[in-house]
## 1
Amino acid sequence: MKKNTIQLSITFAVLLIGMVIVLQLIRMETFQQWFPPNSSPENEFPVMTAEEPKKGEKEIRVFLHQNESDLSEGAIGNMKQALEYAKVPYEQVEREEIKNIAPSPYSIIVLAGEHSKEWPRDVITEFVEEGGRVMIAGRFVDSEWNDLLGIKKVEGYKGDLHGISFEEELFPGYVDLDASSNLFSHSIADVELKEEAAVPLTVEEEPLMWLHEKGEGKVMFWNSTITVDKTTRGMLLQSLSMLPPAFVSAQASIKVFHIDDFPSPIPFETPEKINQEYDKSIRDFYTDVWWKDMKEIGENLDFTYTGYVIGTYRDDTELKGEDLREILRYPMLYFGRDLLSEGGELGLHGYNHQSLVTPSEPIDETFGYVPWKNNRQMVEAIKEVEDVFKYYFPDEEIKSYVPPSNVINTTGIKALEQSLPELKTISSLYIGGDKGSLEQEFGPSDVKNNLYYFPRMTSGYAESPEDQFLQTDVIANFGVFSHFVHPDDVLDSYRAKGRSWSQMRSRLQDMGEHIEENYSYLEAMTQSNAAKKMKSYQESELTVSYEEDRIVITGDEILKPSEFLIRLENGKFLNEGKYSYGSVDKLSEGLYRVTVKEPEAEILIKERSK
Amino acid sequence: MIYRQSSLVRKSIELILVIAGLGMIDQIFGLEMREWTLNPFLITVLLFSLRYGLTIGISSFLLVLVYYLVDMVIGGGDIFLVFYSFDRFINVALLLLVAVIGGMYGTSFRERYESLSDRNSELYEENENVKEVIQSVEESMKAMQNRVLESEYTLTRIYQVGKALDQPTPYLIRNEAIEIISDLFQSREVAIYHVDASFSAMRLSVKRGGPEAFPQTVFVSGEDSMLQRLFSNKTVTIRSVEDDEDAPVLAGPIIQNGKVQEVLIINDLDFERLTNYEIQILSVLLDWLSDRIDKSRASMQKEEEKKMYPGTCIYFKEAFEEKVIEQQDRKEKFDVDYSVIEVPYVNAGAVSKVEMEIILRSYLREVDIVGFEEGSGVFYFLLPGTSPENAGIVRDRLQKVMDEKVVQYVQ
C-alpha cells in the first residue's frame, strides 16, 4: 500500500508538472512556430493536346445577330457569354450576312428582341424549311412570323408573370419556381400555339419556351424578357442544345465553398440566442458546434473550404502590430490552422470589414461603412493585416481576396495589387448585389489583368429554390459551383431568417446533398486552385466534329480529364460505360456527361430502331 | 488466478504488436478509429494498463500518442492542434487519464493480489502444519484412548490373556503366549527360547516370524552381553547401544524355581510403545507365563507319567507319536523344525530303561523326547528344533552310544 501511494504521488506530480509545462509552452509564441501549419494544397491541372484538330464535314455554327435594344443586347450578350463559357463556337452576323448562312441542322441563327421587322423573315423561313435552326431568345409580337414560329394567334404582350415550370427536364437540378418567386419577372407574348408546337417550359401556364418544326428545320422561341438576365445562361445554352441533332458543350467541373469572415476576431459578447440554445460562449459555440459541424459537412459532402481572414471589426485603422495579432491569436491558431489541415485555403477578406472604396466611389450607404481616404491608407492597412497573416502562417501566401460586402472599386483593386503581390483572385458576385458591389464574369480583371475574377453565385445556409435554380443554371452552363457563407450568419437574425443553427445546418446539408447527388463530377477545391483550373479551362481550345454516327472531340491544351455535356436529338443515344478515351454517363433523356482523358475522343452515336 | 507476465520484453512486444496491428488496420481500411466513440486505442490503453499496471499503461499511452501524431501527419493534420485544440487535447488527456487510473488500479490490484497470494501461501503452510499437529494430536488422543479407555491392559483384556494362557500344556501355553505378546506389542518377530542348564546356549522353542527370523540355537557368550545381564538381573532387558547388533531388541526371563528356564525374545519392537508401564505389563505377563508353565508342567507331569515307562521319562510308542503330532503342529504353525530318529536297541532288556535313560540323557537336550517300543526294541527320539539334515548326526551318536556303552556295561 505504501508503494502504491508513493507511485500515485510521483505519477500525479509528473503529470501535473507535464501539463503545466505543456500549457506554458502553448502560451509561448514560439510553440506554434515549432509546429508549422500545413500548407494550402497547390493542385496541378495537366492539359492535353491532340496532334491536330479534326474538323469533319459538320460543325456546330451558332450565328448571333444582335440588334440595338436592351432586350437584344442582353439576350444575345448572355448567349454569347454562355457559349464562351461552354466553349461552343459562335459567330456574330449582321442582317445582310444572314442570307449567306447555308441551311444545316448544325447551323443555328440566334435572334432576340423586338426587331422582327428588321430581320429577313423570308430568308430565315427558307433557311428553316431547308433544315436550318433558329432560336429567338427574346419575345416579340409580329403575326407575320406566326406561321414560322408555330403561333396560331397572338394578342399583344402580357406582363408581370413570375416563376417557371419545366414540362420536361431541361437539365438535372432545375426546380420549378412558382408565381411567388421573384427571380424571374416575365413579359411574354400572349399567344395561342399550334398543336404541333412542343412546349418544354411554361410560366403560370403560359408557354415560356417552345419548339416548332418547320419544313426540315426547327425554330425555338423564348417567349420572355428574362433572357437578358445572367441567371438564364444555362437555360439558354441547354435550350440551344435541343436544336441540332447533336450538341457538345464543355464543363469546367469546379466546386468552391467560401467562408467569409473566417477566421475573424470573435465577438466578446455571446448573443442570447446562442446562450439559450447551446449554453456556450460565442467562442465555444464557434469551436465546438459551428466549425465542428462545418467540417463534418465538408467531409461528408465533399466541400473544400476557403476562408477569408478579417483583421478587426473596427472601422478605423488604429489597431496594429501586437494588438492585432493578439485579437487574431485564437482564430488564426485554431480555426486558421485547422482549416489548412483540412486541405483548405486562407484568403483575405480585409484589414477590417470596410469595403475598399473611397468617398468618390459608389457604395450602399446603408452599410454604414467609413470610406477609405485613399489608396495609401488601404495599402498600409492591407500590409498590416498581411503581417499578422504572415506571423501566423509564414509559409502561406494570400492568393485570394473577397471584398467586404462584395463591394470594391478600382482604388481598392489597385491597392490590393500593390500590397499583395501574390494575390491571384478576387471573388465577388456573379449576380450583381447592392450598390457598389462588384459583379464579375469569370476571367481577368478589367482593372488589373494580372488578377483573375472568380465570382460566387450563391450564399447563405438557407438555400432557397431560387438559389438552387441559380446554382443549377451555372452548372448547366459550364459546370461551376461557388457558394459562400459567414460564420456570423447564425448570430444575425436577419441573415439567419429566424432559423436556429441546427435548422441552418440542415438546410446547408440539403444543398450539399443536392449538389453531390446531381453533380458528383464537380471537383472540390480551394479558390486559388479553382482559379488556376478555370484559367486553364478558358485558355484551352476545343474542336468538335459531328458525323451521322459519331462525334469527334479534339482539344488543344484541354484539361486532363475534361468533362463534356452531349445532347442528342430524339431517337439517338450513347452507350454508357468506359471507353478508351474516358467514360459516358447518362444525366437525363438525351443528355450525357462524357469524361475525356485523351486529347482526341471519338464518341459513337447509336440510333434507336424506329 | 491473475495473469502473470514478468518479462518486460514480452509485455513490450505484446503492446507494440497490438498497437501496430490496430494502426495497420486503421490505415489500410481508413477506419479513422480515433474518431470512434468506442475508440479501440482507448480500450487498448485501458486493457494494458489494467493488466500490466502503471508502467506499461503509460507506455501504451505514449505509443498510442505517437500513433495519433503519425496518423495526423499522414492524414495531413496539424500536430500543433493536438495540443492547442481543446477537444483534441481532451482526447489525449482522456487517454492519459485512462492510462494512469487504469495503471494505478492495475498496479494496486496486482500488489493487493500478490499480498493476498503471499498471505494465502502462508496460511496454506500454517494450515498444513496445523493439519500435521492435529493429526499427531488425533493419533496421540487415539493412543491415549486406547491406553486409557480401550487399553490392551483393561481388566477384560487381562482376563482374556489369563484365559488364553490357561492351557493344559507348556507347549500350548507358549504358543498362546507368543500370540498374545505379538499382538500386545505389535511385533511380528517374537520367540521363546529354552535355556540350557549351563546357561551357555538357548534352544528355540517356539517363534513367530519368517524362516530367517530366529536361529535355532543362540549361544550365550561374553560377560557383558545382553543375555548375561538378563540371566543375572532376571528382569526384562532392552538392548543397549553397547550390545551387539544381532542382539535382540528386548528379552524377558521366564523364571521357574528361581532360575531362568526360558527367554522371551522380541526383535521388531515399536519403542514408542515401550514405556515403563509396558515393561511392567510384560514382566507381569512373563511371571504369569512362568507360573502357568510351571503349573501345567507339574500337572502334565502326572499325566505324562502314565504315558511313560515307570520310573523313566521314556514314552510309550503311542504317547511318543502324540508328541510327534504336536511337534508337527508347531512346525506348521510356527515353522519350527523337528526331527524324529529311530535307533534300534538289539540288547533290549539287558539294561533297564532307567539306566538307558540316564545314559541317553547325557547325549540329549532337555527338550528332546524319548520313546520306546517294547516289541520292536526301538528307541524313538523327537528332536524339536533339529532339522532332518542334522538329525543324522544325533542318530549316529546315539547309535554309537547304545552300541558301545550299553554293551560294555552289560559285559
## 2
Amino acid sequence: MSGYRLENGGRIDRSRPVEFSFDGNPYQGFAGDTLASALLANGISLFGRSFKYHRPRGIMAAGSEEPNALISVDRGAGRFTPNLRATGVEIHAGLNAFSQNRWPSLKRDFGAINDRLGMFFPAGFYNKTFMWPRSFWEKLYEPAIRKMAGLGDAPTQEDPDIYASTYAHCDLLIVGAGPAGIDAALEAMGSNKRIILIDEQDELGGGALADPALWPWLERSRKALIDAPNVTILTRTTAFGYYHDNFIGAVQRLTDHMPNNSDSPREKLWRVRAGEVVLAQGAIERPLVFDGNDTPGVMLSSAAKVFANRFGVAVGTSVALMTAHDSGWHDVFALVKAGVGIKAVIDVRTELSSALLDEASRLGINVYLNHSVTGVNGRHRVTSIQICNNDDFVGARIDCDTLLMAGGWTPSVHLWSHSKGSLAWRDDIGAYVPDQPNENARCVGACSGGWDFGSGMIVDVLPTPKDQSRIKAFVDFQNDVTAKDIKLAVREGFRSIEHIKRYTTNGMATDQGKTSNLNGLQIASTALAKPVTDIGLTSFRPPYTPQTFGALAAHAKGALFQPTRTTNIDGWAAENGAVFELVAQWRRARYFPKMGEDMHAAVNRECVAVRSSVGIFDASTLGKIEVVGPDAAEFLNRMYTNPWKALEPGRCRYGLLLKEDGFITDDGVSARLAPDRFHLTTTTGGAARVLNMMEDYLQTEWPDLDVWLTSTTEQYAVIALQGPNARKLLEPLVEGIDLSADAFPHMAIREGTICGIPTRLFRVSFTGELGFEINVPTAYGRAVWEHLMAEGAKFDITPYGTEAMHVLRAEKGFIIVGQDTDGTITPFDAGLDWAAGKKKPDFVGKRSMARPDIVAPGRKQLVGLLTDDPNVVLEEGAQIVADPRQPIPMTMIGHVTSSYWSETLGRSIAFALVAGGHEMMGGMLYIPMPGKTHEAKVSGMVFYDAEGARLHV
Amino acid sequence: MSDALFRNEPVSSTPCVADGVSISLAAPLKRYSLRARTAEALETVLNAKVPQKIGATEGGIACLGPDEWFLRTAAETAMPTDTGLPVAITDISERSICLVVEGPRAAELLMTGCPLDFDNFAVGRATRTIYETVEIIIIREGEDRFHVEVWRSFAAWLWTAFTAAASH
C-alpha cells in the first residue's frame, strides 16, 4: 500500500496517472477515480464545512447520496459549478476543484465559531430570533445569515457552454444499471421492444462495480447490451424526475469528465416517454445516529467497500465498524480481503448469526456485541472512538482513524414517489417499499426492498450515557439537523413529519433526505411514542439530484430564448436605422431617427410628414382572421357589439369586441369581401386571444353555425400609406381598382393588383388622414414597400413607427385597447357606445352591460386632458386628484392612460380614465408628478379635425 | 405575378448541411386551408377526393382535423364564393414556409424539440404539432424526408433551432 492507495484491485487504470488540484494544491490520481476516491487515496479526510455549524466534514458515502463533500469545480470563465458531490466528479487532467462554505481556508474556518455557539442555534432558530425589528430582516439578518450559512457560490458570469435537448420514446425505460437493472435489460433484450437503460455513473454496474466476483458477468452483460440494436445505453445520465404518463426527465453529462472545454454540448436533456418504466435505483445505506457521527473519517460501511474494491483505495489504516446490520460485517470481510486493516467491529445487537462471528474470529477481528459508539475523538480526522456497553455503559477507547457505520438500508423510492406510486411500511427493514403503482411501472432489486444483505436491527439513536441534549448526533448531515433538533420540534408541538421537516429542515433541499429521512422518522416516532406509519412521510420532489439550469434551459437562451417574430419588412427597417420595440412577441419599428435626432425629434418629424404629405407604416403585425362560410355574417353579428349582417361586400366596419363581462377586449376594422367572406383585423397583441375566443364560442356555443375561422395574420404584409398625398402616390401603381373618392370611399375594400402583385386594398385610417392599408402576400411585402419608397420620393415619403402612430391616433381620439382600457372598461366608459348596437337582441357581453355596477354613476370613464401649461407632457400612469389641497393620502380618482407631445397642435394632449369623467367636461383636474402638481382641463378626446374633413377627400 | 418584384424569405436559400441531415427552404407553394362540415361537401366544391382519416394525405391534401384539411399544390385554386355549401376555403399560401428536413438523421433532428414518436409516424402522415414552443405542421414525405410548415414570423427561430440541433 502506498499512502491510502491499495497495491491491487479496483477498476482504475493505474497506467494513466491524472494530475488535478483541490483548493489550489496539486494531487495525482488515476483514470477512473472520482475526486472523492483520488483525494482519499492522497490521505485527505477533510472535504468541506457543514451548512449551519461550519463543522469539518469528510466523505460519508461513495455515490450520489453523499451529503457532506460538496465542492465547486472551476472550468474557466463562466464555467463555475458549485455544490457538486465529490463522489460524482470524475477526475481529469487539469480538474480544478474547491471546497466550499469556509473562510479563510478549509482547515481554519472562522465560521466554525457557530459550532461552539451551537446551543444558541436550535431548530427554528431563525424564525424565533430574527423576527424583530421587522426592518432588520432584509438589510441585516438575511444577508448575514446567507453569508454564514450556505453552500457554494452562485456563478456570476454568463455560461458560455451549450446544452442539447431531445425527446425520446421507448417501450421500456430502465433507471439504474446495477445487477437488477441489467437483468431487466437482458431479459427484454430479445424482444422487439425499444429499450433505454439509464445510469448516473460513468459505467454500467451499480453495486456490482464494488464486487470483483461479478465483474466477468458484468463484462459479458455489458457487451451483450451494447450489441443489441434495440437497447440505448445512457451512462453519466441522471433520471431526475418522473412525471405524468411515464414521462421521465433525465440529464446526460457529456463533457464535464473531459480535460478540455469543447464546442459540443456540455449536457443533454432527455425527455423520455416510456411504455413501461422499470426502476432499479437500488438502496442507500443508512447512517447511525450518535455523538460525533459527522467527524471526518466516519462514513458508511458500504462506501468503504466501494472505495476499496472499485477504486483501490483504503479509507483508513485502522478501521472500526459500528453496525446494526449484517451488511456491515460483510463489508468488513471484503475490506480485509482487499487489504484494509480492521481494528474492531462494534454491533449494537446482542445476538447475530454465528457465521458472521466465526468469520470475524477467523480473520482475527475484535468484536464488541451489545455495544455502541458514544463519542468520536478527532476534529479533522477520527483519532479514536469511545464505546460503551449498552446495559452497564462500561466503556472503552479504541484508537482508529476511520469509523464505518452500517445502519441498514433504505430503498431508493424517490422516482417511484414522483410517479405517485404508493408505499408500504416494512417493520423488518424499517423502511418504506414500493406498493401499488400509479403508472405502468415496477421496481426491481434493492429499491423494491428485495436484497440479500442479511438482516439488522432498527435503532433511532445509539444508546449513550451522555446527556442527550448536549450531544451532536447528526441525522441530516447536509442541513445540519441533529437528533435533538427533531426531539425539540416534537416538544414544541409538531406532530406531523411534514411540519417537523419544515421546522428542522430535515430532508430538505438538494439532498431530499437520501440518508436522513428514515432516521428522522424513527426519532420522531420514538419521541411521539407513535408508530412511524402514524406520523406520515414527506414527499420526494424532483430533481433526484441537483441538475444545472443550463441543462433544463437547453437551447432556450440567446437567440433561441423565445421566438422574436419579425415582419417581411423588418429587414428594411433594420437597414434604415429603425429603433425597435417589442409588442407581444413581435419586434416593431418604433421610430426612424435621422442623423442627430432623438426620439422626440424623429416622432415630431414623422407626424408632420403624415399630416402634410404621406407617411408609410408597417402594419403587418395586425392580427387578421378570415371568416368564411354561409353563416359568417351571423357569427360576426353575435360576436361584435355592432350590426354586421347589412354590411355590403366591399365595405369595412369598426368592430368592438367585448368579453362576457361587458368589458372591451379588442377592436379592429374588418371588411366584407363577399357575402360569405370577411377579412377581420385585431390588435397586434390580441390576435391569438381573439381567435381563441371566437373559436371557443363557435365550438361550444354555436356549433350549428356553418362558418370557419382561419388566421391570416401572416398571409399578408400590410403597408399603411397615410397622408394627403397617399392617393397620388398609389394611383399609378394600382391596377383594377378605381381609387377616386366616389368609387372608393373611406371604410371600403377593393381587390386588384399593386406593382403587379395581388392586393386587398383597404381605404382606412388610424391617423385621421386620407389613408390606405395595402395587404399583399407576405413574401412581397418588402418589395412593394421598397417600390413605394422609391415612387414616393417625389412626395418626400416618410417611414414612421409605432410611436408616431400612437401620437397620430391620439390626436384623432382613437383608443388603443389595452393601453386606454384595462379590462374593466365598457363601450360607454370609453365613449364608444355608438358602436354598441342598441337594437341588436344580443351580442357577446350585452347582458352584462345592464348590470347594476355597469350602469351606476361614478365609473371610470375615458376623457381627454389638456394641461394648463401646453408644454407639459403628463406622465402616462400618473394619478389624478380632484383637489390638490386635500390631506395626504389623497383620493385618487383616475390616471393618465396616453400622453404625448403633438407637434401638429403645438401642445401636449392626453387621455385619462377618470371616475365620472364624462360629467366633468371643461372642469379642472390635478395631476401630482415629481416636483410639481399639474393642472389640466377635461376635454373631449378628438383634438384634431373633429369634423373629419381630412378623411373624406 | 410581376417578375420585377422579389420574394423576401425569412430564412436562407442556402441549405444547411450537417452530418446525416440537411435543412433547406422548399420552393414556393400555393396553400389553402379547407374547412367543411363534411368531407362530401368539400369534395363537391373541389371536385376531388379528400382523405377522411385524420393524419392521412391524398393528392396533396392532408386531413388535419375532423373538419380541417390542408391543400398544398403548385397550381392556384379558386376560392369559391357563395356556394351555399358548408365549406370554407382560405388562401394561406404565404402564411408559412416549408423547411425540408432530409437525411438519415432527419427524424432524430425533429425529435430534439418535437414530442412525437417518429418510429410510429408512417410515410404520408401529416399532423399539426410543436417544436418546443413553435407550432408547425409535419408531413412525412419519405422515410428520411420531412416537410415542416412553419409560419413565416417563426421561421427564422425554427431555422436557428434546427441548424443548432443539427450541429450537435
